Amino acid sequence: MKTAEEIERIQVAQSEPRFVDAEMLSVDFLSDPAAIERLLPPPLAPGDTPRVTAMVGRWRSNCVADFDGGAIYVSATFGDLAGDYVLAMWMDDDQPMIYGREMFGEPKKLARSQLYRSGDHFSATITRHGVDLLALEADLDIDHGPGRAAGINFNFKSRPATDGIGLEEDAILTVAEFNNVLRVSRSGSGTVALTGTVHDPLDELPVVEVIGARFIEGDLHASARSVATVPMADFLPYALGRVDDWSLLNTEGSPRILTS
């Protein structure tokens, strides 16, 4: 049980999250429009271009301590709102994973991320279960200096039904808005390599053309709200695609490996 004072303190951290001292490397690329349309859950629609952003970064925060991670974003729209659908996201600890998944509906999984800089050259990876799912390389020689930026992320909150068949209720489309104060902003050219596995099928997104890369440092201020619901039967294929395939994790009858 939390006291009234504790509840108030916790809810301030929940409702006014700040992700500060951020360092984020991103590479934008064009993908196959048909793949984009297939992967976007309703009621989202594709953006003006089939742009996908692969990002790796690290942050400090007022709510989930320090953390590293990365994500795949797909350009999308909802009505008059233009933003990015979070197709996949990885974190290095359970606190940022639980917070973003339960609050915003972000499709987070545990993974290891690394981000390196040597002069104008940047590189980054996301590794899960020994596989480098995402690898970025970038040469960023254009310095834009400090500034401000804003963005919108689309996510879906859903829960599996208790009996394992279908979802517990209709999914909820959320909109997270980010207002960012940037101390560093650089851009240039880059490359992206995606590796698919049965649990993280990033190879469903073909890299048709890389259109640019960027790196930012700064503070991110976020707010989120629920904007629509999606019938549970309609969202079920997307919900099961955002988590590992439980049917392929069957170790029943396999010999147990003992370690000292």
From TrEMBL:
It holds the Pfam family ADC. InterPro entries: Acetoacetate_decarboxylase (IPR010451), ADC_dom_sf (IPR023375). Gene3D superfamilies: Acetoacetate decarboxylase-like. This is Acetoacetate decarboxylase family protein. It comes from Aeromicrobium wangtongii.
